[in-house]
Amino acid sequence: MILNFSDFARYKYNMLRKEISDNAEMGATFNSKNLLFTPEDNSPNSKFLYKNLSFIEFNNYELDESVIKFLSEHKTELNKISHLSFWNSKMADLSLLQYFEKVQFLSIAHILDSEFTFNGLTNSTKLKTLCLLKTGKTKNFKSIGENNTIENFSIVQPTTIKSTTGIKNLKRLKYLNIEGSADKVYTLDRLNELEHLKSLEKIKLHRLKVPFQELITSLKIPNKIELEIDTNLYDTKKYKKLGQELKNVTSLAFNPYIERRDFFEPIGKGMRIIKKTDKRLEEKIEKLVTEWNS
């Protein structure tokens, strides 16, 4: 099951590794389940719409009138697509989903249009998981219309997103994942509208910091939920208070966030770096555990 962006990336990697051969064209073999549109492909061609096709990705691909014409002419074939990915492809909204009504898993990486909206999201009537990577200038989710199918929502590197306003429209959301990058902690000012998500079961916040009082206020909801956050973004007293205040949170799964610079150090005046031993990491984790237990 694909719950977040990492799951989607793993699915894509496994699909391509399994099927791409020396004779592949546009990333597809004769009985391929996947199809990649890249800048090298002059125009989409129906000969690649194989009967087993289930995954399509537009990778750095210009979504011009010829693409829209192609999609509209082959809507019947495209209705069997279950996994859809847009990577670094400029879109103003999600109106293209009208040609992918049966998509269950959608990934959008690198939102380029500064005026991007989620208009058109409801065109996919089977959508279960929505994954975003690098959200550009998108500030919130106000443009998400009422949706009764999405159960999993994952946002990685929420570039300018400062609140979760609009998330209340995901009526059946069960899993919310918001995280920063490997070497940067992002800040979310408001984790709001969670009280409207009656089906919410788990929240995962990695490399993401929410003001502490806002975190407590936002999580005081009727649902019993599992919360997963990093251990060292707040001091130990705050973590204990979090556990005391949030009686509805049945599991606090803390994972240590260790910045990348903990593993590397510069040598001399050059750019050379050497990797430190795992002992440094072990010591840091041991210290965190000791503080917590005390």
Describe, in plain words, how this protein is organized in 3D.
This protein is an alpha/beta fold. The chain folds into two domains: 253 residues, Leucine-rich repeat, LRR (right-handed beta-alpha superhelix) (Alpha-Beta Horseshoe); 37 residues, no CATH class. It contains six helices and 14 strands. The strands form three sheets. Strands 1-2-3-4-5-6-7-9-11-12 form a ten-stranded parallel sheet, with helices on one face. Strands 8-10 form a two-stranded parallel sheet. Helix 5 links the parallel strand 11 and strand 12. It is elongated and about 60 Å long.
Keywords:
alpha/beta; two-stranded parallel sheet; 14 strands; Leucine-rich repeat, LRR (right-handed beta-alpha superhelix); 294 residues; 6 helices; ten-stranded parallel beta sheet; Leucine-rich repeat domain-containing protein
Structural topology:
Elements: H1 5-19, E1 34-37, E2 55-59, H2 65-73, H3 75-78, E3 83-87, E4 105-109, E5 129-133, E6 152-156, E7 175-179, E8 186-187, E9 202-206, E10 208-209, H4 212-219, E11 225-230, H5 236-245, E12 249-255, E13 264-266, E14 273-275, H6 278-293
Parallel strand pairs: 1-2, 2-3, 3-4, 4-5, 5-6, 6-7, 7-9, 8-10, 9-11, 11-12
Antiparallel strand pairs: 13-14
